[in-house]
Structures are given as structure tokens and as C-alpha cells.
Amino acid sequence: MEITFLLKAILIAIVEGITEFIPVSSTGHMILVGWAIDFQGKFANMFEVVIQLGAIMAVVVLYWKKIEESVIEFFRFIFTKGKSGKTGFKFGVNVIAASIPMGIVGVLFYDKIKSKFIPEAVIAGFIFGGILLLIIERAYSNKPLKVSSIDNINPMQAITVGILQLLSVWPGMSRSASTIMGGWIAGLTTPIAAEFSFFLAIPAMMGSSLKELFEFDYSIMTPILWVSLVAGFVVAFLVALLVIKKFINYLKKKPMKVFAVYRILAGILLGILVLTKVITLTK
């Protein structure tokens, strides 16, 4: 029984690692898979938070050099009064600017957003997000995209991405899809929009995750739950590590259409199954 539970946890972690940084909604997929394998409840909700941290650690590892250099240059710019570290300071300002909209919404409305969760919202998010991806990619694919380097993003473009990131509070919408669409609107190439979304994920996901972990009732924890938690974190980290590399390489060669079509079809299928009461999704 304990082995079965551990295997379920590992499967959910694999789903998180695969879907967190591609535009298909990790939340929606974890809910669906969680229903299919009967992995739900208080621990499952907290488990999702922990494995999201595992996935975000993959970004930290892969982009550690950029993160380290930017932090050093950010403070160097301040201490030298602008004489040195301009690139890192600019990048830091962009990440902060893009994170402000989500930060404000998170502080003011996080509990209300969580309490309003319904499965139908996930289904609608899948379909609407897919349609929006198709529309925005088509609208901006024929326009000259001037930003092909993450260091060339300006604050207004960063804020545009940050505003679109707000769509991700809609369950099933996908934070990755929302920020990439914001990048297109701001004039970023798809790979750069995706990479910038990775950096924005660090404050956004860590902020919400730490809040959830602080409020969790740890009295329910048992040895198998702790083992599952650690295993899930590691698996999500390793899977995300592989997916991020392959996702960026994919975006350099091909459009996002395949993800959009997948979202729409998955949303329609899920909607039919829920409406016909073949499945019942809970959170």
C-alpha cells in the first residue's frame, strides 16, 4: 500500500516536471491525473506545492550563471552609482517590474482566488488558453520581433509580460502560456519570451509556495508522506531539468500551435467527461 502511494506521488511529480514550463497548465494536468489515480486531499494539495518548488529549482540550476551575474551586477550598479553593472541592474529591474502585477494580486486576492476554484474553470482555461495562443501567435508571428536577447528587454515590455502573467491565476490557463503570450505582444521572440517566463516563475512560484507551506497542517504527516514529499521534489526537479532544455530547443525551430491544439482538444474531452459524469474532479 505504501509503495503504491509512493508510485502515485512520483507519477504526479513527473506530470509536474513535464508540464510546469510548457504552455499546457501543470495545475490542470495534476488535477486530472490526481483524479485518475485517486491522489487527492490535503496532502496532495501540499505535495503539488513542494514539487512546484522542485521544478523551479531546475530553472535556478540551469540559469544559475545568469542569476548569479545579474544579482552581483545589480548591487554593483547601486554601489558604484551606475558606473558598473548596468546589464545586470537592467535585468533585475525588468524581473521586478514584471513581477509587480502578480505580487499585488497575490497579496490582495490569493485566498479568494483559491477559494473560488472549480473544475469547470480548469476546463474553460484549457480551451480559452489554447484559442488565445493560436490567435496571438498568428497575430504576432508575421510582425518583426525586435527583442532576441533577454538583456535587451525594456521595463515597459517587462510590465506587459507581467500583466499577461495575471491570466495564470485562472486555473487551467497556464503561467507559461500567459507570459509567453505577453512576450509576443511586447515584441519578444518566442525563445526569449519563454526564457523570461522561467525567470518570472522564480518569485511567483516561490512566493505562493512558501505561503502554502507555512499554512499547512503538518500534524497529518507520516513517514511515507515525508518520503513521498522528498521523492516528488527530486523527481520534479530532474524531469523539469530535461524538459526546459528540450522546450527551448523546440521553440527555436517550431511554432506553439501544437500546444494550443492539444489544449483545446484536451479541454473539450475533459468537458465531455465531466458533463456526462464519467469523472468527477475535485481539488
UniProtKB/TrEMBL annotation:
Gene Ontology CC annotations of this record: plasma membrane
What UniProt keywords are attached to this protein's entry? Antibiotic resistance, Cell membrane, Cell shape, Cell wall biogenesis/degradation, Hydrolase, Membrane, Peptidoglycan synthesis, Transmembrane, Transmembrane helix
Recorded topology in the membrane? Multi-pass membrane protein
Per the UniProt record, which residue ranges are transmembrane?
6-31, 43-64, 91-110, 117-136, 185-204, 224-248, 260-280
- What is a single molecular function from GO for this protein? undecaprenyl-diphosphatase activity
Where found?
Cell membrane
- Record bears the keyword Transmembrane helix: yes
Q: Which reaction(s) does the protein catalyse, per the Swiss-Prot or TrEMBL entry?
A: di-trans,octa-cis-undecaprenyl diphosphate + H2O = di-trans,octa-cis-undecaprenyl phosphate + phosphate + H(+)
Principal localization reads membrane
Q: Name one Pfam family in it.
A: BacA
Gene Ontology BP terms: cell wall organization; peptidoglycan biosynthetic process; regulation of cell shape; response to antibiotic
Methyltransferase recorded as keyword:
no
| Other noteworthy facts | Bacitracin is thought to be involved in the inhibition of peptidoglycan synthesis by sequestering undecaprenyl diphosphate, thereby reducing the pool of lipid carrier available.
NCBIfam families for the chain: PRK00281.1-4, undec_PP_bacA
Annotated function: Catalyzes the dephosphorylation of undecaprenyl diphosphate (UPP). Confers resistance to bacitracin.
Which protein family is named in the record? Belongs to the UppP family.
Its name, as the record gives it, is: Undecaprenyl-diphosphatase
Tell me which species this is from. Answer: Clostridium amylolyticum
Underlying gene: uppP
